[in-house]
């Protein structure tokens, strides 16, 4: 079963509530929320107050993708904000096992993101502690980048390594409808929908979602 997770970083901020209402009605798997600190990545995104407003109105689960240098410091804060998945970058932590345990203790689902340059095998022993993995198919920090084709191979490697574990694989970055189908065929469960899928400005979100469904089923 495949899913698309809209990244609200690509939504029209002036019409965020309306966009979220439409996406909820379409039956998305989760809202993908990017948090950037200007340090781990050279960009800033979505403060805590804005996130609280989003979780207050959104019906679908919230998948928090933290592109920050000290993700272990914000677990309590985002648990209180109503986040379901707490995704931190492997490259940003020294004690990933401890952080996974802390996340689960706060009632959230631990997830981890892996940059394109990091080998898949570093996650081998972490998989039993995780509910999801986000494979970055671009360098994190900015929308609109080109998809890195070797990601298909990485999806297959991770799927094979996770055999026997209930692990969701999400792919994030540079995905259009054609690429989404290839990612799903390679073994991923969730593709992040951005400028090239759900938020193409010349069509409505609902029309874009329908086009995505047709493409991945074809």
TrEMBL record:
Keywords: Isomerase, Metal-binding. The gene is rpe_2. The keyword Heme does not apply. The keyword Transcription regulation does not apply. InterPro entries: Aldolase_TIM, Ribul_P_3_epim-like, RibuloseP-bd_barrel. SUPFAM superfamilies: Ribulose-phoshate binding barrel. This is Ribulose-phosphate 3-epimerase. It holds the Pfam family Ribul_P_3_epim. PROSITE patterns: RIBUL_P_3_EPIMER_1 (PS01085), RIBUL_P_3_EPIMER_2 (PS01086).
